[in-house]
Amino acid sequence: MTTLSVVPAYAVPAPKAPLERTTIARRQVGAHDILIDIKFAGICHSDIHQANEGWGEAIFPMVPGHEIAGVVTQTGSAVTRYAVGDRVGVGCFVDSCRACEYCEQGLEQYCLNGTVATYNGREKNGEPTYGGYSTHLVVDENYAVRIPDALSLDVAAPLLCAGITTYSPLRHWNAGPGKKIAVIGLGGLGHMAVKLAHAMGAEVTVLSQTLRKKDDGLRLGADHYYATGDESVFSELRGRFDLVLSTVSAPLPIDAYLRLLKVDGAFVNVGAPEEPNSVNMFSLIAGRKSLAGSSIGGIRETQEMLDFCAEHGIGAEIELIRADQINEAYQRVVGSDVRYRFVIDTATI
């Protein structure tokens, strides 16, 4: 069986530059590796932040993409978890130290020695990592997850970031029957948060700048939808929620949102603005409220999320694009012109 070493990809050659078609080297399939024929790759807003060096210095050329769905086409000699033909996904990281207390708990995303990012990272040997805007990926079997047959690969791809990024905090803060959850923003992350919180049995409210997407929000599972551009909303909803989940990547008036929480409520960030934010400590003290953040999930929780989505018929709302439309898609994401996730058909690379 032939081992792939050079494959087609789309890369960002320099900060803020348009993506270009190129080729990249993939490592040979090692004993514990699987070779994935990538079928679909989601476009996450974090791809754009990193391509623009919005979160700090980055590695170029960069092949973005950490919402990867595909099929195993080759396995290493020691692989036990997967076989050729299996449907698999890869999310935001492809390795971790495997030995720290968090890796041992299945919380690899909080690895004390640092996870190896799927792209814009470095392997343990120092080589740069390249992501899912390509035709193939070689990854250790322990850092891939199985995509249930009930999920189509195209709508499953965004679950590997947008899905787990919202599922993890909803589970951690006990979203379920009797809980009132507010989701800030109805974008790539927000629409998944609404679907998941609804399926968990919570009462779900969307807080968006306008009512432009109200019909979509209610269709996706929201019970209520408010426009935060109307200042009276913050008075009307004061003390309403157990959890406010912010999915937006822009600074917010956090104090105003903290006032929407019940006593012991939590405001949790999964969106990551490039600019710093501020908060008045009295907004937390008055009501014993928490201001928190949440990353993605570990491998076990990501698998749990995929199984939950399969059970409840949940996939991302996507717009399938060709690879030569990626640059246009980036512009549209920045302009909030997507409902609700662009997914690249990697056969077009």
TrEMBL record:
Organism: Streptomyces tremellae
Catalytic activity: a primary alcohol + NADP(+) = an aldehyde + NADPH + H(+)
Cofactor(s) for this UniProt protein: Zn(2+)
SUPFAM superfamilies: GroES-like (SSF50129), NAD(P)-binding Rossmann-fold domains (SSF51735)
Protein keywords: Metal-binding, Oxidoreductase, Zinc
Residues covered by the Enoyl reductase (ER) domain: 17-344
Lineage: Bacteria, Bacillati, Actinomycetota, Actinomycetes, Kitasatosporales
Protein family according to the UniProt entry: Belongs to the zinc-containing alcohol dehydrogenase family.
SMART domains: PKS_ER (SM00829)
Family annotation (Pfam families): ADH_N, ADH_zinc_N
Protein name: alcohol dehydrogenase (NADP(+))
Enzyme Commission number: 1.1.1.2
